[in-house]
Amino acid sequence: MNNLLANGTVLITGGAGFIGSNFIPFLLNKNPNVIVINLDKLTYAGNLKNLIEINAHPNYTFVEGDICDYSLINKIFKDYNINGVINFAAESHVDNSIDSPSPFIKTNIEGTFNLLEVARKHWKGKEYRFHHISTDEVYGSLPEEGYFTEESNYQPNSPYSASKASSDFLVRSYHHTYGMNVVTSNCSNNYGPKQHDEKLIPTIIRSAIKGLSIPIYGNGKNIRDWLYVNDHCIGIDTIYKQGVAGETYLLGGNNEFDNLTVAAKICEILDLKIPKIKGSYKNQIEFVQDRLGHDFRYAIDASKISNELGWKAFEKFESGLEKTVDWYLNKYQS
To answer: Is 200 strand, coil or helix?
Structure first.
């Protein structure tokens, strides 16, 4: 199994999105013999500019298309002799799932089913790997104490997390029913370069430097565990190569902060890097109506992947946040 990622042909779905566009360059740099086929629908959340550094790479091919298009997926498997899948493709913004759930059901459930079905039919008798990328949101909301583990019950509270939970169960079923070599990873909140502007940290940075109010849901006390995207990429690589078939692995950054604290930390960085003539960026923070069904807290116990596969998050939140702010300042001010 160890040689597949380093030397095989892997289909990466959703590779023009936030995490995928960080992972593909990481993968190609680390594994010079791997061939990457990137399938992305290029919705509003996908941007080929995120992959400009590897556009001319001889082992990289981009295909524009939808994982809900069964015929296209089947053609890709035939044309490129795919022997691995890493499935990033998903509708992922919780607010959008509340406003319009239908695309989440179609992409996250039907799309994952199509990938599994095509892989099952092409890979009969082969130990090729299917890695499904998921989220800690499938587990619902935590109280002030405790952590999600691989044994936690699924309790999704939004259409987004419900659709991801459904896709997780589909992947699991293909292992137990058909013996497919699958692994699933559920990560905590990612942050870092290339994240779409709609997400919390880019919104805070953009609003601050444009002199707009910085919107914080409710009282700002909702807590998330933050994982730097490069640490996540290392974890995905580790699980794909070394993970046990049929197993799930949780990845977290051990960086728990409430949303108000995250906003304050970003404002403090901006106060140093591009100080205002008068006052602090913190003065722009404004509390807005809370999100429907807003989960209170997510936090991950990543001891399984640490103990079994040797992975742990390296980046401290403060250093990762400064790198992230620098990237967005370059983007918004260029």
So the answer is: helix
